[in-house]
Amino acid sequence: MNKGLKICGVSDPETLNYILNHDHRPTMIGFITNYEKSRRFVKYEKLKDLVNVDKKDVYFTSVLVSPTDEILEKIKNLNFDYYQLYDVSPERTKEIKLKFKKKIITALTISNKDDVVKYKDYSKIADIILFDSKGYHNSQSFDHNLLRDVPNELNKMIAGNIQIDDIPSLKSKDFIIDISGALEDRNGKKDINKIDKLLNLIKKL
Questions:
Q1: Which of 52, 89, 133, 174 has the fewest CB atoms within 10 Å, counting from its CB?
Q2: What is the dihedral of CA 91, 158, 174, 85, to 10 degrees?
Q3: What is the pLDDT of residue 1?
Q4: What angle do CA 179, 76, 12 make, to 5 degrees?
Q5: What's the pLDDT at 137?
Q6: In 186-201, which positions are buried (b, 16+ CB within 10 angstroms) versus exposed (e)?
Q7: What percent of the chain lies above the pLDDT cut of 70?
Q8: Cα 98 to Cα 126: distance, rounded to the nearest angstrom
């Protein structure tokens, strides 16, 4: 059975409030903190108000691409449980974890098996390894069969343009499922109806 669900790219209080008050809340919610190319990016002044809520046992995740010390210092007191790090070396990851006392999701972008085995460099540092596509904000897919040899005992998450209809085929996988673009309308705004469908489906499965 999958280990949980993360809804990523939440950027407005209405959507966040809906998720947090749903009968079947996800395990995690992600917020794009410093990657301005993403349409889901949330500027700092808005972000600090957005996450300053009762999380209701949902873990809040700050999604960061190659974060500088400046942005890490700026957000260090915000209501985050995890930092999800893209393009960060193992040494830098360890430094961030120790300094800022946050749990770490190391995000690896995958196109071949050589990308997959990089998890070994982070397995003793990160709390969760995320296997994602190369697309970043573009919600691209990758071949999930590349993950077949990843050990069961690794605490891991899977992303890469996962659609709601894909969820039943993933129900037996021991991954946390990370989903974002499939929950949006044509304008890139999170769709409450799609979120409701997903959360009810996860509960049923």
A1: 52
A2: 20
A3: 44
A4: 40
A5: 55
A6: eeeebeeeebbbbbeb
A7: 94
A8: 11
Query: How many other CB atoms are found less than 10 A from the CB of residue 104?
Result: 21
Cα 152 to Cα 115: distance, rounded to the nearest angstrom: 18
Nearest-angstrom CA–CA distance, 111 and 165: 23
Give the residue carrying structure tokens 């190391």. 106
Taking the chain (205 residues) in consecutive chunks of 10 residues, what is each chunk's mean pLDDT?
A: 85 97 97 94 97 97 97 97 98 98 97 95 97 73 87 92 86 84 89 95 82
Number of residues in the chain: 205
Comparing C-alpha atoms, which of 84, 91, 89, 79 is closest to residue 159?
84
Q: Where are the domains of the chain?
A: 4-204
Beta-bridge partner residues of 7: 29, 179
How far apart CA 200 and CA 205 sit, in angstroms, is: 9
Distance separating alpha carbons of residues 16 and 11, to the nearest angstrom: 8
Give the E-state strand segments of 147-203 in sequence order.
156-158, 176-179
Residue 70 CB burial class (10 angstroms; 0-12, 13-18, ≥19): exposed
